[in-house]
Known about the structure:
Layout: E1 2-5, E2 8-11, E3 13-14, E4 26-30, H1 35-46, E5 52-55, H2 69-74, E6 82-85, E7 88-91, H3 93-103, H4 112-120, H5 135-142, H6 144-151, H7 159-165, H8 169-181, H9 191-213, H10 227-241, H11 245-251, H12 253-264, H13 266-273, H14 278-293, H15 295-306
Parallel strand pairs: 4-5
Antiparallel strand pairs: 1-2, 3-7, 4-6, 6-7
Helix pairs in contact: 1-3, 1-10, 1-13, 4-10, 5-9, 6-14, 9-15, 11-12, 14-15
The protein binds glutathione.
Residues 34-36, 58-59, 66, 78-81, 92-94, 171 line the site of glutathione (GSH).
Amino acid sequence: MKTNNKNLEIVSGKQPFKVIETNDEWVLYHNEFSLCSRKVRICMSEADIHYKSKHINIIETGNAENLSRYFKKINPKVTVPVLLHNGYPIYESHEQIKYLNEYKNDKLIINDDENNWIKKASLVGEPINNLDQYAGNCVSLLTPPLFISMLRNISIIKFFPYMIKHPIKFRAVNFLFFKLLGYFLYRKSTPLYRISLRASRNLNQHMKDLDTQINNKEWIMGKDFGLADISWAVILHRLEELQLLDHILHTYSNIEIYYERLKKRKCFIDGITNVQNKKVNTGVMGLQKSIRKVKNLSFMYHEIKQNFTR
Length: 310
Ligand SMILES: N[C@@H](CCC(=O)N[C@@H](CS)C(=O)NCC(=O)O)C(=O)O
């Protein structure tokens, strides 16, 4: 499937060409920090599919390996995850998990209602748009403090090839600003500050909806664990990394019970807990410290947390 979004062509789903010759039925190019990669790893585990794992570093994890000539052959858009089935690439994580679901439809059951819950957790289009529809967009706008913390440990020299080689210039420029200006970008009333508050207000409504949906249920759709749960698992986990989850769980007790249950599920352990990355852990610890010590940031976190109310 191809979609034209202004000048940026988004290619998604299974493609009719091979990108490599391989004897492995399934190959997953992924990154330990990437939320979309986590989603697909959880899904692979839930579907009990063994795959060849190819870890690709991105700038946040120290080195933009995704911009190499080798990886551009796998995905010219340079993003992870990419799933290969017998050498044929499947692009976009929501397409990858649906593909896996169809392949193993006896295990992961999906219907229209669940589809809405999957979409609600997804990052769709530009993150700044449709915050009321997509919790994924809200979370994406709340993630830069963690990017900033992780990029602190990356040498500025790595940003020169990054800027030149990255095909998505808007993304590359943003990351350069995160590196150069750090938490200065969060002074009161800067655009990023205001966007973050707007994202948190919208996210609160999504959390309210989720809390209501899972009242007295084991999983989002009831008794069966499915793609909606996978999609929300990575959202809640990212909010934990962003140091926002405790506050949300304090407000929403059904989500608190639900997240405890999620963390115990084997696929969550395989896809997230057992895939640790030192740079991510250092970044999360750095963020914790900065929230306490950097005035701009602590003030903004204080404001954001006030938005998570019933
Ligand atoms: N919509 C895509 C998003 C993929 C994406 O943006 N991946 C990020 C990591 S979560 C990435 O590859 N970033 C590296 C970069 O752009 O340099 C999907 O769902 O697969």
